[in-house]
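Q: what sequence does this backbone want?
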């Protein structure tokens, strides 16, 4: 299978921990950073390739020793002062500065984005190098410490738990710890003039002027969390925060322990509640269970889309079966020109991938029955908690849990181009 983003990531090593110390000036969009990576070699190494955007690299050390380095075309090549044996670990420190710029992609710029008054990070799938040096592949998950210093009039929200908040002369440093393993594209920083509120057991960050609408539109998020915990298993992280930026965004974005919405996703009528459900569901499907390869994206987007239908069903809206029927009719009228289990980069985020993925989950639910399907689903999230997953892993998990063959059903939905019937 051809890698979707061959210019990103390096399988010759892994990163177990990132320690990011950042200073950001909102006026001028200036970022100064020190990144400390704990890396381990999968094979003997004499050099290390890190993914990093257009910054000025001020210095690199490996285990405290200065290292020669060259940055170009999105890669920071570090010549190791001494070879690293397979299985050996090293501490790599990179000091860098500059204007963070989004990473070009078929879907526009990804990663660090300057807002009207602040900044946000939306990294899926290859935007992480826009703000820190990393091994940018979803199969390399690590723990994180993220410290950001900026003007005290702004609040910083990052992945994990707020461990400390230190005030200086006109600035505040916000320090977050993310102990659960996280893929680089899910690392995120949000900077803005936010108020933080607790609503129904979940946290909301939003501009003050949008408070009433945000509290209403996200008012059922606690109930949603309880429904998903019952259907999918316990929530996999320490906390969760939904951030509403004071800018319009094309689509909401999930990060680990966090979701980011634009002000245009808040209308005071819960008109975008399905998206609230979708992003929350990604905490199980995408963030805890992360695909090893982007070709398996249906395991994230298909399940998150099906969660929209499950929330509709649980909250008094249309049942999932009716959503499935309507979307099956719509998809049947569209081109059947991709394979769900390997759709290709061009249609990676096509709505057909999302909806056919959800239909695959619904077809499996119909075949197994609720009394079997939901325990199988909870077993899947429990067995692969905080790990990487693939389509083959999922098919194997389902087959081990039941006695009758499930291969023909999954094969038709995942590997055949024509849309199978729902019956």
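A:
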């Amino acid at each position: 299978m051809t890698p979707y983003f061959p210019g990103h990531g390096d399988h010759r090593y892994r990163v177990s921990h990132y320690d990011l110390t950042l200073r950001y000036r909102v006026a001028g969009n200036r970022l100064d950073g020190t990144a400390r990576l704990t890396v381990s070699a999968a094979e003997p190494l004499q050099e290390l390739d890190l993914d990093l955007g257009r910054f000025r690299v001020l210095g690199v050390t490996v285990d405290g020793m200065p290292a020669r380095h060259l940055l170009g075309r999105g890669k920071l090549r570090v010549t190791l002062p001494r070879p690293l044996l397979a299985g050996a670990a090293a501490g790599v420190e990179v000091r860098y500065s500059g204007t963070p710029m989004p990473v070009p992609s078929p879907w526009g710029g990804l990663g660090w984005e300057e807002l009207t008054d602040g900044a946000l990070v939306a990294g899926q799938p290859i935007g992480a190098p826009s703000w820190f040096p990393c091994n940018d592949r979803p199969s390399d998950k690590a723990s994180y410490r993220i410290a950001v210093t900026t003007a005290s009039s702004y609040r910083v929200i990052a992945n994990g738990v707020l461990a400390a908040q230190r005030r200086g002369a006109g600035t505040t440093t916000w320090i977050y710890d993310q102990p659960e393993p996280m893929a680089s594209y899910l690392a995120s920083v949000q900077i803005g003039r936010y108020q933080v509120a607790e609503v129904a057991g979940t946290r909301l960050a939003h501009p003050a002027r949008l408070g009433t609408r945000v509290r209403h539109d996200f008012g059922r998020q606690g109930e949603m969390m309880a429904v998903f915990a019952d259907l999918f298993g316990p929530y996999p992280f320490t906390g969760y925060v939904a951030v509403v930026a004071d800018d319009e965004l094309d689509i909401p974005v999930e990060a680990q322990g966090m979701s980011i919405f634009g002000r245009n996703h808040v209308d005071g009528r819960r008109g975008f509640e399905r998206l609230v459900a979708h992003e929350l569901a990604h905490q199980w499907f995408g963030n805890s269970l992360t695909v090893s390869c982007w070709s398996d994206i249906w395991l994230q987007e298909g399940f998150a889309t099906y969660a929209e239908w499950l929330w509709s069903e649980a909250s008094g809206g249309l049942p999932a079966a009716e959503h499935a029927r309507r979307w099956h009719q719509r998809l049947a009228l569209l081109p059947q020109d991709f394979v769900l289990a390997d759709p290709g980069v061009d249609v990676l985020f096509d709505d057909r991938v999302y909806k056919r993925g959800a239909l695959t989950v619904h077809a499996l639910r119909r075949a197994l029955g609720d009394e079997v399907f939901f325990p199988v689903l909870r077993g899947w999230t429990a067995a692969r908690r905080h790990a990487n997953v693939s389509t083959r892993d999922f098919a194997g998990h389902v087959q081990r849990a039941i006695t009758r063959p499930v291969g023909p059903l999954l094969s038709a939905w995942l590997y055949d181009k024509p849309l199978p019937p729902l019956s």
